[in-house]
Design goal:
- There is one protein chain.
- This protein has 7 helices and 14 strands.
- The strands form 3 sheets. A 6-stranded mixed β-sheet has the order 1-2-3-4-5-6, with helices on one face.
- The chain is globular, with a radius of gyration of 16 Å.
- A hairpin with a 2-residue loop joins strand 2 (13-20) and strand 3.
- The protein is of the alpha/beta class.
Length: 206
Amino acid sequence: MKIYKFLTSPIQVNTYLAYDGRVGFIVDPGGYEPRLTEIAKSESIDVQYIILTHGHGDHIGGIAGFKEDFPDAKVVAYCDEREILNDSALNAAKDIFGYDISIDADIYVNDGDELTVGDMNLKFLHTPGHTKGGMCIVCGDYIFTGDTIFRESIGRTDFYSGNFDEIIRSIKNKIFTYPDSTILLPGHMGDTTVEHEKRYNPFVQD
């Protein structure tokens, strides 16, 4: 699997293009980034899915633009995130972009659901805490963690449906069950690993 990372939206969200062979998916299109499309087109990548780790405005601002470029791509989100995606007052898009964004996913998944994208197998983990419908995406040796965990930090829990105790449980009981060598690709800041976060993340030390 090959992964490209782009910084998008005014809040510098990590937007990912992942693919294997000629089939791929986008994770968290915080804003529209034409370079992502250029790479996908130049390498003849069939972008089949746009996957959202959660519904905050800074992670969904690029959906409309990428849907124009990849009209057959299906938007995927966790079932409990429908409310935030549908309600611009809850996803705070206007505060970020200056206009409302209300969307509905094409596919809503549940905890443990899996999706095959070309030769890649994705597994969805419900990781509430940042939002009630936040999720992580496991693909091989990688986990796209959205705003659940960052390098030596965690996502905020003071937004609508956030909960500090839940985010800590999500990290310890879901993400930390994977091998220490697993690479974590967060929604902000740099990459990290399960081992590094177990050792150095101050929020999850017992």
